[in-house]
Amino acid sequence: MNFLRWRTDLALKKNKSLRASLPYKQAKNIGIIFTVEDKQKHLDIKDLIHHFESDGKLVKVLEFLPKKKENYEFLFDFFSIDDLSFWGSINSSTAEKFSDTAFDYLLCVDNQSNPLLLNLLARCKARCRVGKFSENETAFFELMIESKGTTRGLIDHMYKYTKQLK
Predict the structure, then answer these.
(1) What is the CATH number of domain 2-163?
(2) Distance of alpha carbon 165 from alpha carbon 149, whole angstroms
(3) How far lies 19's CA from each of 22, 58, 70, 140, in Å?
(4) The pTM is what?
(5) What is the pLDDT of residues 74-112, one digit of tens each?
(6) Which of 20, 22, 79, 91 fits a disulfide with 95 by CB distance 3.0 to 4.6 angstroms?
(7) What does the pLDDT read at residue 16?
């Protein structure tokens, strides 16, 4: 994991992607990245996708699938710890393609920090990255949401505040 942290820090420094929030009405592409936890989180993510699609947005999702967790419905693209090399590289064409996509908004829907997702956030080409507030992770997000509670609460706040961007 030390190599992963080093690669993540390096990616943060080298990534020169344009970061700026686009008014929500103009946004077309939205990415969602999250760590698989349980069936309820899966359902909450599906509900969030439905909200965005109802607003006319194109949504792509990538999940990190930890060991001994179920991949519900095999609905979303995913990567796992098996895709992490000894040297801290994520060797997943799916994750690579996702991080190369220039999303208007990229939402990281996790209450707990995940070093693999932080690595993708550091390398991504998204214009505006949205995540849960954490003092240690301000370099990874343009919009951070203060949320103490359930994943559902975090999702509701992310949708609400992203929609309000002008």
Answers:
(1) 3.40.50
(2) 23
(3) 9, 19, 34, 11
(4) 0.95
(5) 999 999 999 999 999 999 999 999 999 999 999 999 999
(6) 79
(7) 87
